[in-house]
């Protein structure tokens, strides 16, 4: 691209390409990048110099005979040079409705082009594999081993061997079939081996439901505890699990993950099957977990907080509500006992706390956000509906000297998201002013001067955003002069304030 007598710097042009193609990887985005390269030699050179543009590839293999050029795809991803590479492969076995069997002679996972690509793909930062059944994954591994022998590769490269070059793995199984169930019964586990990764994202298949009103889960499905042998689970330090199963089903899997440091659990089921049972009362000891994320938690799944035994938790995120909820109405927390006990038991180590999609009344609020959170540095309240004014509540109930003298004495960041557009922020600013008092005096030049009466507060950043009233943004609503004035005073005191826009309905 020419500007006057000069050519636009290739780095700048490559950055423009990054903005224009933020999600390069699938067929459509790869075609767009190719079209950009055909505009001119300068554009092509700028694109080739930008390693990020070539670092992500998404493949969808539907049939064994599908045309797929491994050489072209390898050439594409190798252009990323040393940039971290991501590969996503979806093996759908398109056209097969029979989930009870997936023989290797017809399985899409045995596509020759895919096998050749997987044998020579360079080292990956992340690999995502989606298969119709666990048998498809085994067919892929067996085909890779066979092709390695044909190509005289030593050692043989396969997804279930320790030589496959990948750092993190995401595995999604659409449905367990009879072969998977027989394998777990015969050999003990569905997957005998994985690449030598410590970071795994696992999505378990949907539970078959009966047509009865109780909607009991299918008890013949493979148990999560039979997926991997202990040697695989014990090498994991980061696990993200999306599951339709209840806690009793996934507990055997979690118990073997003794070296986990980061755990994310997502309940995907439209119906929750986690009502307390005798097996749910057993504790799950995860002594090294520092980060815990729980999503789609409802009343019947809150009991997981009483089961997990953690010692060094510093980061906790709780997102409530059913996965199938389109309106995402905030979940109402009537009994705070489990959440209160869980948070208070980690008050000495908890530095990051995020609560999402929850309605809280006064007594519940006092229980789950105690003054004992003395080391808390980052508090996020996202779509949290308060039946009382939370900041007025904190000002009216100051902690004792034994509790530190003030709420959250080490808090550095406070984030309030998805507030109602008519939310009154008066008590929020009063709460912050109480943490660092000040007075406003008239200066000699007639301008008001802010005099702070204490040392800087621990809070360094305040973020406030508001929800949209509808799918259409509507008309922007200006903040009041009182709010703008309070923001200016906070910024003068060293607090970075990010105040979101408010909108009215059209």
Topology at a glance:
Blueprint (H helix, E strand, L loop, with lengths): L1 E2 L2 E2 L2 H11 L6 H11 L3 H9 L6 E6 L8 H9 L7 E6 L20 H9 L3 E8 L2 H17 L15 E8 L4 H10 L11 E5 L26 H4 L4 E6 L3 H9 L6 E6 L16 E2 L5 E7 L10 E2 L5 E6 L10 E2 L4 H9 L6 E9 L1 H7 L9 E9 L3 H7 L16 E7 L6 H10 L2 E5 L5 E5 L8 E6 L8 E3 L3 H12 L3 E4 L2 E3 L2
Parallel strand pairs: 3-4, 4-5, 5-6, 6-7, 7-8, 8-9, 9-11, 10-12, 11-13, 13-15, 14-15, 15-16, 16-17, 17-20, 20-22
Antiparallel strand pairs: 1-2, 18-19, 21-23
Counting DSSP H or I runs of 4 or more residues, the number of helices is 14
Q: Could you tell me how far the N terminus lies from the C terminus, measured between alpha carbons in angstroms?
A: 42 Å
Query: What's the main sheet like?
Result: 15 strands, parallel
Principal-axes geometry comes out as: globular
Q: Kindly state the mean pLDDT as a whole number? A: 83
* Global Rg: 27 Å
Q: Which percent range describes the beta-strand content?
A: 15-25%
Query: How much helicity do the residues have?
Result: 25-40%
The residue ranges in which pLDDT falls below 50 over 5 or more consecutive positions are 208-220, 271-280
Count of DSSP strands:
23
Which structural class do the helices and strands define?
alpha/beta
Oligomer: single chain
């Amino acid at each position: 691209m020419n500007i006057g007598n000069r050519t636009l710097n290739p780095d700048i042009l490559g950055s423009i390409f990054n903005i224009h193609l933020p999600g390069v990887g699938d067929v459509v985005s790869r075609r767009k990048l190719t079209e950009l390269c055909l505009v001119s030699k300068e554009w092509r050179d700028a694109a080739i110099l930008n390693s990020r543009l070539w670092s992500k590839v998404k493949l969808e293999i539907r049939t064994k005979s599908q045309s797929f050029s491994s050489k072209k795809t390898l050439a594409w991803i190798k252009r990323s040079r040393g940039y971290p590479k991501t590969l996503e492969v979806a093996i759908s076995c398109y056209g097969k409705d029979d989930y009870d069997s997936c023989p290797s002679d017809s399985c899409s996972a045995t596509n020759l082009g895919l096998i050749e690509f997987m044998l020579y793909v360079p080292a990956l930062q992340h690999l995502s594999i989606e298969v119709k059944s666990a048998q498809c994954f085994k067919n892929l591994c067996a085909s890779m081993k066979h092709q390695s022998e044909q190509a005289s590769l030593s050692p043989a490269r396969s997804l279930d061997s320790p030589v496959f070059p990948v750092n993190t793995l995401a595995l999604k199984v659409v449905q367990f079939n009879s072969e998977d169930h027989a394998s777990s019964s015969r050999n003990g586990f569905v997957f005998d081996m994985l690449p030598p990764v410590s970071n795994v994202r696992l999505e378990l298949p949907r539970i078959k439901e009966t047509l009865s009103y109780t909607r009991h889960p299918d008890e013949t499905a493979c148990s999560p505890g039979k997926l991997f042998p202990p040697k695989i689970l014990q090498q994991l330090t980061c696990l993200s699990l999306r599951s339709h199963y209840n806690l009793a089903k996934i507990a055997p899997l979690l118990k073997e993950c003794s070296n986990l440091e980061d755990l994310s659990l997502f309940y995907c089921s439209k119906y929750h099957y986690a009502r307390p049972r005798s097996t749910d009362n057993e504790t799950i000891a995860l002594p090294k977990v520092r980060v815990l994320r729980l999503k789609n938690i409802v009343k019947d799944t809150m009991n997981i907080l009483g089961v997990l035994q953690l010692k060094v938790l510093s980061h906790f995120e709780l997102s409530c509500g059913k996965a199938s909820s389109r309106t995402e109405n905030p979940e109402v927390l009537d009994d705070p006992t489990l959440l209160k006990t869980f948070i208070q038991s980690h008050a000495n180590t908890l530095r990051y706390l995020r609560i999402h999609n929850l309605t809280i009344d006064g007594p519940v609020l006092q229980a789950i956000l105690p003054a004992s959170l003395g080391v808390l540095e980052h508090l996020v309240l996202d779509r949290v509906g308060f039946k009382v004014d939370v900041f007025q509540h904190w000002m009216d109930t100051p902690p004792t000297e034994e509790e530190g003298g003030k709420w959250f004495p080490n808090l550095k960041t406070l984030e309030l998201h998805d507030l109602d557009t008519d939310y009154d922020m008066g008590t929020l600013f009063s709460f912050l002013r109480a943490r660092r008092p000040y007075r406003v005096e008239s200066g000699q030049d007639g301008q008001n001067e802010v005099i702070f009466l204490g040392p800087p507060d621990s809070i360094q950043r305040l973020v406030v955003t508001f929800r949209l009233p509808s799918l259409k943004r509507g008309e922007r609503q200006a903040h009041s002069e009182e709010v703008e004035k309070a923001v200016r005073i906070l910024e003068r005191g060293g607090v970075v304030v990010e105040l979101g826009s408010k909108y009215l309905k059209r």
